[in-house]
Amino acid sequence: MKHLILKTLMAGGLVMGMGQITKAQTDTMKMDSVNHKKFGIHKKTGVTLNFGKKDRDNEKDSSGIYKSHFTGGLTFNRIDIGYSRLVDNGSSNLSPENDFLSYRGGKTSTFSFDIAQFGYRFTPNFKIYLAGGFDWTLIRLRKDITIQKAMPTLTYEDQTVGFSKNRFSSSYVHIPLNFEFRTKDNKNGNRFFVVVGPEIGFLLNGKVKQISGERGKEKFYDDYHFQGLRYGGTVRLGYAGIGVFTKYYFSDMFNTAAQAGLKNFSFGVTLGIN
Question: Distance (Å, rounded) from C-alpha 193 to C-alpha 184?
């Protein structure tokens, strides 16, 4: 996951540098048609890779009225990088039943991005769209324990080795429904964005990754009683393609009675908010 995040940031930096390409060069990279296909370098937001119908910002009909339209296709956007926190029945402190999940806050993170979106732009300032992508929650455990596979409850075993890394993670396919509000372009050609909406997620897998001097690197996969279907909401605030986000999942993290009321909250930075 660290390599994936690093590659994403490197790609973003590369795109920022390439953003100085002249308009003539950029125009040669675009193919606009009824079935819009485009690989572009946007001077404000970086790389955009879109297949589908073009999102026409200011197109009007013969009477001067804005033409609302469907928009969407494949994309690589809304890259969320941030921190995750466990909320135990409304408290930031874990209950005795969940103390084995005690974690290192500075190394417990979230990472997600969207790969597709389909929606409808009603006005230049308002759009509703359904998106799809992937989401990871990476919990860095404090204690030298191993979460056990294929057990009837969320169970752990104390270990005699000292782990330099003991990470407990989940990965989901997420499907957010977003309501996007944005301002008109300012004199610099940039906009402010507000994006809010619910989302659902479908579990791909759970994972334990451990590194120690005694055992080296070990990885274990199971569902680990993570919720198979989770639901929550997201708020994003941004300007010129960069912003901040917060997510809260109303469903419990796990489907076990002992962990009832344990939820996931995350916050951080969004790249490519439009």
Answer: 10
* 68 contacts 118 by C-beta, under 8 angstroms: no
- Residue 146: how many other CB atoms lie within 10 Å: 20
- Cα–Cα distance, 66 to 107 (Å, whole number): 47
CA–CA separation, 197 and 200 (whole Å): 10
State which H helix or E strand residue 140 sits in: strand 126-140
DSSP strands (E only) in 141-274: 145-147, 156-158, 163-182, 192-212, 216-222, 229-239, 242-249, 262-271
Closest residue by Cα to residue 145 from 173, 168, 171, 112: 168
Using one digit for the tens of pLDDT, what is the confidence trace for 213-226? Answer: 999 999 999 999 99
CB distance 174 to 200 below 8 Å: yes
DSSP 96: G
What pLDDT, in 10s, does the model give residues 149-166? 999 999 999 999 999 999
User: 192-204: per-residue pLDDT in tens?
Assistant: 999 999 999 999 9
* Predicted structure pTM score: 0.80
Q: Are strands 156-158 and 163-182 parallel, antiparallel or unpaired?
A: unpaired
